[in-house]
Amino acid sequence: MKISKQQLEQVNGRIDALLKAGSFYGKKLREAGISHVDSPEHFEELPFSEKSDLRDAYPLGLMTAPENEIVRIHSSSGTTGLPVIIPYTARDVEDWAIMFARCYEMAGITSMDRIQITPGYGLWTAGIGFQAGAERLGAMVIPMGPGNTEKQLTMMQDMRSTVLCSTSSYALLLTEEIEKRGIRDRICLKKGVIGSERWGDKMRQRIHEGLGIELYDIYGLTEIYGPGIGINCACNQGMHYWDDYLYLEIVDPQTLRPVPDGEMGEIVITTLVKEGAPLIRYRTHDLSRIIPGPCPCGSPYPRLDTIMGRTDDMMKIKGVNVFPSQIEEILRDFPEVSSEYQIRISHLDGRDTMRIYVETNGSVNFLDLADRVAAKIKASIGFTPLVKVVENGLLPRSEKKTRRVIDERYE
Ligand code: ZN
C-alpha cells in the first residue's frame, strides 16, 4: 500500500521535529541528507530504525518534544541489555486511548461491558493501555493486573466480567482452571481480547471452546504506543489497523525492499503524529502481510494478516530455516495432541538435534504418536526430530508469555 499524500505531509512534520530535536533519527536524516520527502519513492529512501538504535538512546535520547510536554514514559522489557524508554506527550497518551477504544468497538464491546484486565501495569504498556481505551469507551474496568488466579476467578464471578483481556498463555491457564473447578456456568465472559504473543489455531480453538467466548487478536508494540494499534473484526479475516495514525510497510527482511500487498515479509511502521518519540520506518521483526482488498465488514481501515512469527524466531537446524509456526501447523493435524508444545534444540556429537515435546491423554499410544509426528515433520521440513509425548498438563503454563523454543546451543 503506497503512502498517501496526506501521510507524506504528516511524515514531513515528524521529520522536522526529529531534525530539530537532534535525536538518533535526526542524525540519520542529516547523514542521509534528507530533510523532506515528496513522493512514495522518496519515502522509501528514508533510513530504517531498529530496536538497537532505541537502546543506544537510553535513557531519554528518543525525547523529541520539549520536556514540559512529556507526561509519561513507558519501557519495553529489557531481556537483552538496556531497556528502551519511550516518552509520551499528553496527545500521545490520548491518541493511544482513541486507538484502543476503536479496537474495543471493532470487537463489538460497548460501554455496558465489564472488562477484566490481566496484563501488567507499570512501566509495561499493556495494562494501562487496555484500561485507558476501556475508560474512553465508557466500559467498567476491573484492573486486576497479572497473576493471582484465585482472586482473578473470584472477581470474574462476582463482578460478572464480560470481557477478558490477557495473553493467550494466561487465557489458556484460566480456561483450564475454570474447567478443573467446574465453575464455567458461573462465568459470564463473552469476549476475549488477546495480545502480546503469537498463538496457533489449536490454542485459539481450545480457549474458544473452553470458555465459550469470541476471541480477538490485538496488535501493538511498546515502541509504537503499545497494544491497540490493530485488531481483527467479527469477519475474522485479518486485523484492521489505524492508518490515520500509522503507515505500515511490509519489506523483505533480507533485501529490505517493500514487497507487493499480499506478500509475506517484515512489518515496518512509521508513526504519523506521535510527538514524544516519533519513529520512522521502524523494523518490528514481526512477520505478516497486508491483506489486499476491502473487508466484508465494510470498515475502511486496511488489514494486516495474523502475525506469523518473528524474523528472529527463525531456527537454523541442520542448515534448514524453520519457524515455530511451521511446527505448530503440523501439530494442528493431530487432534489428539493439546495446544501446548516445546521445542528444544541442542548440539550433540557434532550434530544439531531438535526435540519436540507434545501433550496428549492416556487413551493414545505414546510411542506410535511420537513416530507419526516425527514422520510428518520429516515429510514437510526435511529432517527427523526426536518427538517425546507427555501427559496433558505436564508442559509449563504461563501467566505471561510461554517460552516454546529453547535453543540450548547458545545457553
Ligand atoms: Zn473487517
Mean pLDDT: 93
Count up the domains.
2
Counting copies of identical and different chains, the oligomeric state is single chain
Q: Uncertain runs with pLDDT below 50, 5 residues or more? A: none
CATH architecture of the largest domain: 3-Layer(aba) Sandwich
- What is the beta-strand fraction? 25-35%
Q: Give the fraction of residues assigned to helices.
A: 25-40%
State the total count of DSSP E strands.
Answer: 21
Biggest sheet strand line-up:
4-3-5-6-7-8-9-14-13
Explain what this protein looks like in three dimensions:
This protein folds into two domains: 223 residues, ANL, N-terminal domain (Rossmann fold), CATH 3.40.50; 97 residues, GMP Synthetase, Chain A, domain 3 (2-Layer Sandwich). It has eleven helices and 21 strands. Strands 4-3-5-6-7-8-9-14-13 form a nine-stranded mixed beta sheet. A four-stranded antiparallel beta sheet has the order 10-11-12-15. α10 crosses α11. The longest helix has 17 residues. Zinc ion binds next to loops.
